[in-house]
Amino acid sequence: MAIDVRQLRPSMLTRMLNSTPLGEVLSERQLRRHRNRAGYRIGDEKHVDLLRYAAWLVWSRHNPEPEKEPLDYEAMKEAARARNAELSAIGRDIGDIPEVVDPQRKARGATDFRFFCEAYFPQTFSLPWSDDHLKVIAKIETAVLRGGVFAMAMPRGSGKTTLAETACIWAMLTGAREFVCLIGSDAGHARNMLESIKVEFETNDHLLDDYPEAVFPIHALERIHNRAKGQICNGKATRIVWTADEIVLPTIDGSKASGAIIRVAGIESRIRGMKFKRADGRAVRPSLVVLDDPQTDESARSDQQVRARMETLNGAILNLAGPGQKISGIMPCTVIRPGDMADQILDRDKHPAWQGERTKLVYAFPSNEKLWDKYAQIRADSFRNDGDGHEATEFYRKHRKEMDAGAVIAWPQRHNEDELSAIQHAMNLRLQDERAFWAEYQNEPLPQDEGDSDQLTADAIAAKTNGHPRSVIPIGASHLTMFIDVQGKLLFHTVVAWEDDFTGYVVDYGTYPDQQRPVFALREVQKTLARVAPGAGLEGSIYAGLEKLTGEYLARRWRRDDGAEMRIERCLIDANWGQSTDVVYQFCRQSAHAGLIMPSHGRYVGASSIPFSEYKRKTGERVGHHWRIPNVQGRRQVRHVVIDTNYWKSFVHARLAVAMGDPGSLSLFGRKPAEHQLLAEHLTAEYRVKTEARGRVVDEWKVRAGGPDNHWFDCLVGCAVAASVQGAVLPGTDAKAAPVRQRVRLSELQRSRR
Predict the structure, then answer these.
(1) Alpha helix (H) residue ranges in 110-184
(2) Confidence class of residue 454 from pLDDT cuts 50, 70 and 90?
(3) I need a labelling partner for 238 at 20 to 30 A (CA). Which of 53, 405, 424, 425 fits?
(4) Which residues contact 386 (CB under 8 A, 6 or more apart)?
(5) What is residue 482's three-state secondary structure?
(6) 752 C-beta neighbours (distance < 10 Å), count
(7) How is residue 371 annotated by DSSP?
(8) Strand 491-498 versus strand 479-486 pairing type
């Protein structure tokens, strides 16, 4: 390529002069100083005339500046300051932006995401694309260039996160999106993705060649990131931001990527209202959001967290663009369990706008199961004998044609060096862990083996509404009971009306303090007992909460359908939680409603435990249907109820399973199932396992994986026990109605003696 020495860019002139046998004779800093001194005599703003430059150097050599008179101290200080300021500006000024190396490649990459990946990231995307990759790439291209939201579930290791990171870089460099928001399952996860993007900006020479207006100033920082604030380009600030949570590309005149922003956040962080003030005064909001695996194993197993993250997605995230603006979205995800966040988003019936794409590692498994069973046995024997499994590979090599028959694999090039094919690789993964294989590589996780398959679902419980207004008691009810579950942050409570045959109606439930939102988890609540009782310690805040809650509920008159008024007959308070036992007993002893309230203790009575019916009854002890009230002894001096929790949890679930209208049915107030979704999730937070020991078969209840909240389940169980204490009996049980002692006036007793 011919070089015009009368029109040289400063960077090219420096390289050319330093290419002689003399070595380095001119630095960029020297050239900038010479251009400032010579002005337009040696060139214009962007080019240098080599001949005029050489002439100026010769003239300067033979015409030195006259010696100046000695300066006084103040003048010397000012001159030194000016000289240092000039040197500082020269050091911060990165000079001219280099020319684009391949304009045609850059122009094609601006509209072709697949080409952009192949041309600028050849080491990352070195293998041939699968058909699934090409479908995902097309969806990403559409979302970035034309808008829309897209969710993709790909097998682990298929590059979905790398594609998402590359899409962010592509959207920013080409000017397709000026503000990208990157959201992870937590802030740490999102920062790791941003760090990966930073590495590409700092080390990818292909990007430097074709996008120098965005990448060259970043390279000029030389990984000394505190230089970003002072960096200038030809006298103008580049305004680069380079922090752990945010990147702002340099502000360069004529650059499509000028001032483009990418910011990261965890899905549980503060996302709402995200915006950025640009150098031109415009306030911009995100126009592209990338959610990479927005759920964790823990959150996927919790229905409450799934609902909370779905609400964040549909509320805060999809409205990031601001009023009247649509946001584009890309969500690479993995289905961890049926019904989790990813599974719901990928369901095109529930969320068609996300255009969910669920790809697999294997679309059809080999038909010759006998040979693969033999392969599995050989492979396992090899590992048991400290081998490396090569015997199984040789067996596969010999029978490969028969063993591959019927298999359809998504990505034929995906296998390890010690494997012969992608089919063998997939089968090895399946043999390694069947459950993990179906979740991580097939995006079809196996259902969790938790209890009986006929156990009630949260949706079925929430749908069992009776149409009665909240706090109104049905006409057939004759008992009204309450239970308070004590936690360090909150008091959970439930009020249930009962008929004598244990037909029940949930008339009220909630928390103190009231959270005033439909979905929340105990671990994340902000409005706590401590906040509404400032200055009180743990025990003091619990005592104050119990006093406030019982004062409101136990003194209240509850209206029945026929106009009659009822009051709560019995209120049990959980005394099992941590440090609350003593304060609960103290409150029950000192409360103005001491005749109605009673501490309760749940006991885990398993199949190998002694059932309550076999306990030797002691003097003064009251024994009921799988509950007992021991005689008062010891320092607490308050009678309390001991409950067989396994039995009563099964009892409550059985009542929920009874059809509406049949005796013994338990139902919820209102007509809208959605209002009871969180309650229903508490009621299904545990599952039962039938266990046999000592000739007994018992339902033992266990908390589901992830430890979801189950506090309203405990409340409902406590209300049922309180109803039994008050005399409610389920027909067909062996329990006899406990006698209810009638109030007798002293005047009546005296008249009866006359």
Answers:
(1) 113-120, 131-145, 160-173
(2) low
(3) 53
(4) none
(5) strand
(6) 8
(7) H
(8) antiparallel
